[in-house]
Write a structure and sequence with these properties.
Layout lengths: L26 H10 L14 E2 L11 H8 L9 H14 L3 E5 L2 H12 L5 E4 L4 H9 L3 E4 L20 H11 L7 E4 L12 H13 L4 E4 L3 H11 L8 H10 L3 E5 L10 E5 L2 H14 L10 H16 L2 H19 L12 E5 H4 L9 H13 L1 E2 L1 E3 L1 H4 L15 E5 L7 H16 L7 E5 L10 E4 L4 H5 L1
Parallel strand pairs: 1-10, 3-4, 5-6, 6-7
Antiparallel strand pairs: 2-8, 7-8, 9-12, 11-12, 13-14
Helix pairs in contact: 1-14, 2-11, 3-11, 4-5, 4-10, 8-9, 12-16, 14-16
Amino acid sequence: MTETQGPRMIPEPYKIKMVERVRLLPRAQRERAIKEAGHNTFLLRSEDVFIDLLTDSGTNAMTDTQWSAMLQADEAYAGARSYYRFVEAAQEVYGYRYVLPVHQGRAAEHILSQILIKPGDIVPGNMYFTTTRLHQELAGGVFVDVIIKEAHDPGSEHPFKGNLDLGKLAAAVEKAGSHRVPYVAVGAPVNMAGGQPVSMENLRQVSAFCRSAKIPLVLDAARAVENAWFIKEREPGYADKSLKAILREMCALTDAAAMSAKKDAYANIGGFLAVNDEGLYREAQNLCVVYEGLHTYGGLSGRDLEALARGFLESVETDEWMAHRIAQVRYLWSRLDDAYVPLVRPCGGHAVFLDAKAILPHLSQEELPAQSLCAALYAQSGVRAMERGIVSAGRDAKTGENHKPALELVRLALPRRVYTQTHLDYVADGVIETARQGNSVPGLKFVYEPKYLRFFQARFDPVVRSLAAARR
């Protein structure tokens, strides 16, 4: 196979047992639907969406073994056997000593932040994530970005754009003092950078730095199996190792993990906070009772716990699942790259990221190019995507000014085991046509903005330019 032939599509390592009907609304109805949603794809009705690439979180298709495990669930309020299966599976796959179930990843972030962060603390990390940073700020902390500079350049081909810059990290800790750094956060891979991975060597260096400074290192493990795949594929010495072994090595370099199990574990809800320190675990148990429910169910039903336990094990029992997932993402990425659609490079793990600044160069960042492109793509094709730019970045907690990230991205996140190659071809055609008509896409402005995590619920109106401005 030559490079010009594009990636080889791996046949699906599964058969389809059940289907869900979807429909493509006529163009006029799609335009009406996105207008009624305030030009925010989060506010669209699911039934009005043809292909849903809003997120890969909780939107996956589970296996028959996961469904059958749900029928064997123990729904006892306290000490259910389903809880113990959940904990044992998570310990086997990830390797941490203590595992606390929670209803999703942001619950783990919240509990961890409430325990560890004091007002005035800083939390260094490799690019912010929306919910993570908010929980850090609500606890009185300040996020400090210490990712390598290549991560902010969509055209950089660096194979591990998620890596932390050790110089930036050391400088941030020295400036604040290690006593003001409750932990270092590492996302692997980094969602907001385009699903870009962290190398094992970088993780090893960061771990050594943190341990010498007596600062805990916390992993965002939502898509850690995907990160393990990129280490296996791109980093010398790992080609012959299993994903399970690579994942355990990653986790062993960290002290704790906040996990949204709605990604790698294929489930529709759930997560965990995993730690090695018993004292921290006891504090987390106590807060779990306050916010989530008893520590043996963590806001989840026994059915959820059973599906998650099976999902943890299945995510690493064979490399085939991840091989197919990565191949699907690369297929869509290559279709768009071949058509010269500006993309984040190289292709990441869970999604294809469109460079909205390059696709809509006539819009300023204050005209919300990524949000505008999302709305235009839905109107064109019925495909739902997510904004990852100035809207997601939010406002500075002190000044109220918009954070202005270097990247203005539209994320096309692929649910696991849901769509076929034909679906991806349709998505590619829709994106290509939307990009071709980019000059006609209007900017957007806020007409409603909630205080927190505004991208979920904000509403927008098109920006009406004067004739003179339009001619310029």
